[in-house]
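Crash report, auto-generated. Payload:
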Amino acid sequence: MAPVFKQIAIIGVGLIGGSIARAALEKGAAGEVVLFDGNADALKRAGEIGFGKPAASIEDAVRDADAVFHCVPVGAISATAKASIGAMKAGAILTDVGSVKGNVAREFKALGRDDVHVIPGHPIAGTEKSGPDAGFASLFDNRWFIITPEAGGSAEYVEATDKLAEFWTMLGSKVERMDAQRHDLVLAVTSHIPHLIAYNMVATAYDMEAVTEGEVVKFSAAGFRDFTRIAASDPTMWRDVFLNNKEAVLEVLGRFEEDLTALRKAIRNADGQKLFDTFTESRRIRREIIDAGQDTSVANFGRDTSKKP
Amino acid sequence: MAPVFKQIAIIGVGLIGGSIARAALEKGAAGEVVLFDGNADALKRAGEIGFGKPAASIEDAVRDADAVFHCVPVGAISATAKASIGAMKAGAILTDVGSVKGNVAREFKALGRDDVHVIPGHPIAGTEKSGPDAGFASLFDNRWFIITPEAGGSAEYVEATDKLAEFWTMLGSKVERMDAQRHDLVLAVTSHIPHLIAYNMVATAYDMEAVTEGEVVKFSAAGFRDFTRIAASDPTMWRDVFLNNKEAVLEVLGRFEEDLTALRKAIRNADGQKLFDTFTESRRIRREIIDAGQDTSVANFGRDTSKKP
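Recovered output after restart:
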């Protein structure tokens, strides 16, 4: 199978950028991979590992690329795109891997290059690790890749979208097209609010450390341990997610708080039936998720560590 | 090493009861194990597996036991203890494995048998599985067992407490003495509230299913999947925990809600620094938990599945 793209540029060589580079070369989805990272040490390390060719500048990295992947935290995409947009060739694809799509699409469009194809994307994959050494080629295997193209694009735009979808399919992903706003709401429910709550739970526990004289850490049972694992994710990435998906996050958070108030009331009133019904319903939706193939009943925290080389 | 107890009774042959029975026989901590369960099928199955001798009645089960372990949901302990207390021999130990200790201690004392030793206990161990087949002998290896004896007991009582501690040490646990009220507050932070929040998050997501036309389940990313796993635990057990640890649960929940309000405000006001600081602090406390040996950096959801036969 011929490479989908002759050359791609990866801006940001962390877990996701590094994994795209490795997967693209290993699976033959790109002929050549050019790398850039604002962190000189990370860029140097990426070159040593050998999953692409480090460029001297961000402009050099994108100059001959058929597709440019901005793999930096959502809050930094605007800056990296701005710094490189002028050097992109006409007809190239401008894309990303951020967890928020509405804002990214707006920022890309605001750059005013009507001759490049803006196609934001989001691979639903990752681990809590970061840096160039964290990447691996099978990270996207059998994972969703959500693509949020503009509605009603030109024939050339539709063709570019199909090529990007083909690229991600070669990387192992299941590709799904979605409206950017819909994406941001769905992800607020399935990922953003769960992370916010995990972070919050850990903060509350930290406050209780003084009250309990260190016993929270000592006796951290299964429930709390699992929260700290979620909350071990990159602070910069998550700050940017909440700042950039404010509307959907606040909507889902409002619903979460309403539901929690109802549970609190049930506890205060010793309403065992309400508690039992809510807990039973939770089990049912978990079963649906297992049936939908998004998880197994095996306890692995959903991280696919078995795949990691 | 001689058995700590000549004979023990296990009331309730689920995950914990079954594991105590297996571990006690395998590690020689008890000479004989007599079993009872209100569910005749479970009791029969336990007899077939062969980790103890099924008794014809709950009274028969406890009659000659040196220690009686009530291994049923916290809300059912009062009934099983009441049904069997009259048949217990003088000087025997009355204990349990529930996640709440204050209420259990009060219920045990209210039975009025001053000649048996009331020593509530809580092994911090478990999986999301239940039933007689779920138990295994290594479940308690290197796990905390918290014992909450009364303050200022007789010499005979202190001796009984030491024997129960010795029993759990032989089962592989690290034994810690604690005040019952302190136990209930620490566990509210580390286990009860995390479970409540996980259940609540799944309930909120379920409400959003209609809004997102099934896409919550389809695209459940890592964060949400982990919550559904926590929320897959036994509804009866957790209903009883919240009904029996109301005071501590409401206190910690109040603090959680205050902290969440502060994060919501930071998102609304686009206060990136507050978000970044909170998320960074969460990472630090996770590091403390790993250093305290309560978890590893390996993603296994803290379930010790590797140990399971």
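Post-recovery validation: The longest strand of chain A covers residues 5-11.
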